[in-house]
Model the fold of this input.
Amino acid sequence: MTGEQRQRRSALPAVDRVLRTEETAALVAAYGRPLVVEAVRAELARLRKCGAAASLASIIEECAAALERDLRPSQRRVFNLTGTVLHTNLGRAPLPEEAIGAAIEAMRDPTTLEYDTATGRRGERDNHVAGWLTRLTGAEAALTVNNNAGALVLALNTLAEGRETIVSRGELIEIGGSFRLPDIMARAGTRLREVGTTNRTHLADYADAIGPQTGLVLKVHTSNYAVHGFTAAVPAPKLAELAANRGIPFIEDLGSGSLVDFEVWGLPHEPTAAEALAQGADLVTFSGDKLLGGPQAGLVAGRSELVKRLARNPLKRALRLDKIRLAALEAVLRLYADPGRLVERLPALRLLARPVERIRAAGERLLPTVQRALHGVAEASLVETKSQIGSGALPVSLLPSIALALRPRSHTSGMAVESLARALRALPIPVIGRIEAGRVLLDLRCLEDETAFTEQLGAYSDKIHLS
Done:
């Protein structure tokens, strides 16, 4: 350290001197003394280490900025303009207002989560949604856990622990985060018995594999990929008949799952829980936060005797839902009682079924504002694109959409495009798009709050630049 640096270091104020200012007192009132003291000490330590000079005002300003960064919520609202409607990394399905209100009410006060007011005794938390699930699926009974992977683990562990589970080789899926079905099965305590080949599996393959060690037959909906060409798969009714004749349970894992036929709204068909049960599945498992449009949950519906066995498994307690998500899920399920208004009231379905003409009209309204905000930074235009449903649902079914295409001006390198995408993500409400063909595409299918979007671009246009 040079003499000049030592002089600067000695000139820095003591912690108490910084804390005695009116500006720091305001910080203490806003954030509390412990955090402010910590911020002041950290800033002074940084300045001493680098031997930099700083005024009292600049030190307080840096401390205020650090406190604001530290106290900012880690999980924040974003504009999902990726073109993936049910984006796993962005929280999947947005909840309807009815579910949000129900969750708030459940958070605010004690509830009848596990209390029966008629008898004054302990109740069962699954009863808050089981009635709706059985009504909507035609199942004898139902229960809930924290997600669909949890539902599958619970079913496998309960019905096939220490025994074999038969699965087609073409259905050994891998879901997000590199979680693979064979690994999940191993953790559940069941042995995988693969049958068939990657592209073709026949009923005889299942029949030949069934033996004294068979615990159950599992059919997995390949919701995040599709195999085309020379293929064969056994229809669920055939598997259900085989399993019933051999006296073993047949489970169908729908993955995303749905409670209604999406073709009503011009969307591709996705197998529903009711269809799976009607075709003979003893149990069906599916998600609550994907096509169903609710909070994260794993749903199990089917034969009463099997559901009761799952409910008695100690794992059920480890995987159970809390009162907040149960309240939100119940509110979402109630919306399905009025399917005629479902597309208006359920945000996930509304976004999926949004006509491309409305998306184009939104783009035409937004384009002039975006062009002004990005003047000198990027050229903005409207382009036709394709949205995808996401979260492993209908992977090859794309939805026509419209996007704002942003091409950096006078920059041809990929770094310029990355820089523009990064600048948009750095806005107070991060704008998340995707990079394609040297442009940042902002798919407008999921943009409903146009006012907040345009106001933010106008207020922070000077901060959007290429670094």
